[in-house]
């Protein structure tokens, strides 16, 4: 059994609609444990730094504008194969392609306002968790 941690962000479209609890229930019902969580307003510089890997993509500026349009909830999810499991719970990036029952199928508004972000690999998860949390903030 591989217990992992992954970084999740509940995005501004979801916090605006007060969906934090419903989204958290999806994680918990699937067996992931929320071991750290904070609601924050990202600055432009912070959003640009978090999404630096996408800085050359055509959607980068719109993505940054969207991510600073309201509060986000950053969280660490822990559980068996947490990185992959969270990606299954979220569903495809484009909600039109997301499987029924996934967060994005149920809640996302568009490919940009897609309600949640999740790390795509264990190495990315470690880096993204350290972007938002110190070790002392994570309580298993
Ligand atoms: P996320 O998992 O947070 O990682 C990058 C984000 O860019 C992605 O989710 C989408 O919300 C956003 N995005 C906007 N447009 C696109 C696009 N055309 N293709 C992929 N991601 C996009």
Give a description of the structure.
The two termini are 17 Å apart. This protein has helices at residues 12-16, 20-29, 44-50, 60-67, 82-90, 103-107, 122-132; strands at 3-10, 33-40, 72-80, 116-118. It is of the alpha+beta class. It is globular. The longest helix is centred in the last third of the chain and has 11 residues, at 122-132. The mean pLDDT is 98. It has a four-stranded antiparallel sheet with strand order 2-3-1-4. Bound molecules: adenosine-3',5'-cyclic-monophosphate. Residues 54, 59, 63, 93, 111-112, 114, 117 line the site of adenosine-3',5'-cyclic-monophosphate (CMP).
Structural class category? alpha+beta
Basic shape:
globular
Mean pLDDT: 98
- Please count the beta strands (DSSP E, at least 2 residues each): 4
Looking across the biggest beta sheet, what order are the strands in? 2-3-1-4
Per DSSP, what share of the residues sits in E-state strands of 2 or more residues?
A: 15-25%
Number of helices: 7
Keywords:
single chain, 140 residues, alpha+beta, 4-stranded antiparallel sheet, 7 helices, globular, binds adenosine-3',5'-cyclic-monophosphate
